[in-house]
Amino acid sequence: MYSLAEVIGSPSQYLPIGIQLLFAIGFIAVMIAVSHYLGPKRNTSDKLDNFESGIEQVGNARQPMAVKYFLVAILFVLFDVEVIFFYPYAVNFKSLGWDGFWAVLMFVGFFFAGFTYIIKKGALKWED
Q1: What is the per-residue pLDDT across 50-104, written as a single tens digit (0 to 9) for each?
Q2: Angle CA 73–76–82, to nearest 5
């Protein structure tokens, strides 16, 4: 059995790692300071505005959004995650045999049942 000192080692073995860590932190701090003090400082009104993905700002950002947007986003995530489960079947379909085929067929049935439920509830209609 090994003692704890043999497993961990002596502190002098960690000295190169500590020196490298200090050099890395020092290098980062020096580079940030140099770029801050030597870099250009041209604060224009365009630079101080909030960035809106390149789109001109129109109106107030605090306006309520339609719930349909969030519903479609949640449904996308739900069905996207379900589709991911087809990949393992596609990779291993020969080794899974008929049991795997029936399991995937049942999965697809549940998938389409959920999709038809969403269609019948009108979750994807945008006419509001």
Answers
A1: 766 666 667 777 777 777 778 888 888 888 888 888 888 888 888 888 888 898 8
A2: 145
Q: Any idea of the CA torsion for 19, 22, 24, 30, to the nearest 10 degrees?
A: -140
Q: What is the per-residue DSSP string for 40-89?
A: -----HHHHSPP-TTPPP-S-TTSPPPHHHHHHHHHHHHHHHHHHTHHHH
Q: Which two tokens stand for residue 36?
A: 């801050």
* Per-residue pLDDT at 42 exceeds 70: yes
- Output the six-digit token pair for 47: 């630079």
Q: Which amino acid is at 57?
A: Q
Asked if residue 11 has pLDDT above 70, the reply is: yes
Q: Which amino acid is at 114?
A: G
Structure token pair of residue 10: 């002596």
